[in-house]
């Protein structure tokens, strides 16, 4: 049978890894290791657009974008490319697009986005989009956001970006 001194020594030996592991958990939850979240609001103006006014199913398209921040200051540029994946029989018909966007945000890097939604112009509807990656400051970016079309030549983007 072990003496109290041996039990204390054994307890200390078994406790050391647990304390070390606990220390790692505490270190991982420190403010310095907290996730980096950022909400970015942009307005995009189409400088070029290959999508016709009455596109057919399967029509590919591309857009060149100029980006502005909430204060109307230039924030970068970008592009969108996609394909028409459905044209509904409604009157007027709704054009459903699947598209990828790349937003180049100056020297901070790029955000890469993906979405499928009705492309109704104009439309105040906030359509969901996914943040699927990026580069530079946004190399580990992910998250979600919305895209809307308040006028035929304007796109509003709200992006909730995580980079942890």
Question: Outline of this structure?
Answer:
The chain is α+β, with helices and mostly antiparallel strands and 164 residues long.
| Residue runs with pLDDT of under 50 for 5 or more positions | 6-34
Overall geometry comes to globular
Tally of helical segments: 1
Helix content: 10-25%
How do the strands of the widest beta sheet line up side by side? 1-2-3-4-5-6-7-8
Q: Kindly report the CATH topology of the largest domain.
A: AOC barrel-like
β-strand number: 8
Q: Report the C-alpha radius of gyration, rounded.
A: 25 Å
Can you describe what's shown?
This protein is an alpha+beta fold and 164 residues long. It folds into 2 domains: 33 residues; 128 residues, Beta Barrel (AOC barrel-like). The protein has 1 helix and 8 strands. Strands 1-2-3-4-5-6-7-8 form an 8-stranded antiparallel β-barrel. Strand 3 and strand 4 form a beta hairpin. It is globular. This is Secreted protein. Keywords: Secreted, Signal.
List keywords for this structure.
164 residues, alpha+beta, AOC barrel-like, 2 domains, 8-stranded antiparallel beta barrel, 8 strands, 15% helix, globular
Topology (SSEs and partners):
Blueprint: H1 4-28, E1 37-49, E2 60-68, E3 74-87, E4 95-104, E5 109-118, E6 123-136, E7 142-151, E8 154-162
Antiparallel strand pairs: 1-2, 1-8, 2-3, 3-4, 4-5, 5-6, 6-7, 7-8
């Amino acid at each position: 049978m072990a003496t109290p001194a041996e039990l204390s020594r054994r307890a200390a030996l078994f406790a050391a890894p647990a304390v070390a592991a606990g220390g790692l958990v505490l270190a991982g939850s420190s403010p310095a290791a907290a996730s980096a979240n950022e909400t970015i609001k942009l307005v995009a103006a189409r400088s070029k657009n290959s999508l016709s006014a009455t596109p057919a199913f399967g029509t590919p398209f591309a857009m060149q974008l100029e980006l502005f921040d909430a204060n109307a200051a230039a924030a970068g540029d970008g592009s969108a490319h996609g394909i028409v994946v459905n044209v509904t029989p409604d009157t007027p018909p709704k054009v459903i697009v699947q598209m990828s966007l790349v937003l180049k945000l100056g020297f901070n890097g790029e955000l890469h986005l993906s979405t499928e939604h009705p492309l109704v112009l104009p439309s105040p509807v906030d359509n969901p989009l996914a943040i699927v990656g990026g580069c530079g400051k946004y190399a580990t970016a992910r998250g979600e956001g919305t895209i809307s079309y308040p006028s035929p030549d304007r796109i509003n983007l709200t992006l909730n970006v995580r980079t942890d």
